[in-house]
């Protein structure tokens, strides 16, 4: 088995919480902070930390606005984030193919 695909996994995406956020956003054009928190059953602090890491990597964009006089934070994958996520998924598929019995 070739270990190289494992070494090439994007460590930013690979963490469980960030992978969940990336997967959720890959399936939706954008999600609010509250939707992410509730869907993924995470604490405010966990979601905030993971969003910050993904945003610093250039994988997510964060928009702050108001809805019904309440703050609203929404997140969406950037083009770079969508590309990185697809590369991550393709690499996982390559790893799976290597491990399947022939």
General description of the model:
With 102 residues, the chain is an alpha+beta fold. The protein has one domain (4-93): Orthogonal Bundle (Arc Repressor Mutant, subunit A). It is 60% helix and 18% strand. It has six helices and three strands. It has a three-stranded antiparallel beta sheet. The model has no long low-confidence stretch (mean pLDDT 94).
Oligomeric state of the chains present here: single chain
Name of the CATH class: Mainly Alpha
Largest sheet: 3 strands, antiparallel
Give the terminus-to-terminus CA distance: 13 Å
In the sheet with the most strands, the strands line up as: 1-3-2
Strand runs, count: 3
Radius of gyration: 15 Å
What class, by secondary structure content? Answer: alpha+beta
CATH architecture: Orthogonal Bundle
Strand content: 15-25%
What is the count of distinct domains?
Answer: 1
Mean pLDDT: 94
Name the CATH superfamily assignment: Winged helix-like DNA-binding domain superfamily/Winged helix DNA-binding domain
Q: Provide the succession of SSEs.
A: HHHEHHEEH
- Count, helices: 6
């Amino acid at each position: 088995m070739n270990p190289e695909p494992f070494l090439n996994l994007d460590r930013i995406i690979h963490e469980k919480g960030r992978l969940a956020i990336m997967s959720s956003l890959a399936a939706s054009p954008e999600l609010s902070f509250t939707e992410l928190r509730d869907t993924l059953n995470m604490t405010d602090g966990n979601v905030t930390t993971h969003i910050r890491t993904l945003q610093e990597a250039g994988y997510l964009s964060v928009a702050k606005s108001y809805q019904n006089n309440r703050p609203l934070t929404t997140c969406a994958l950037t083009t770079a984030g969508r590309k990185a996520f697809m590369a991550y998924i393709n690499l996982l598929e390559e790893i799976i193919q290597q491990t399947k019995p022939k």
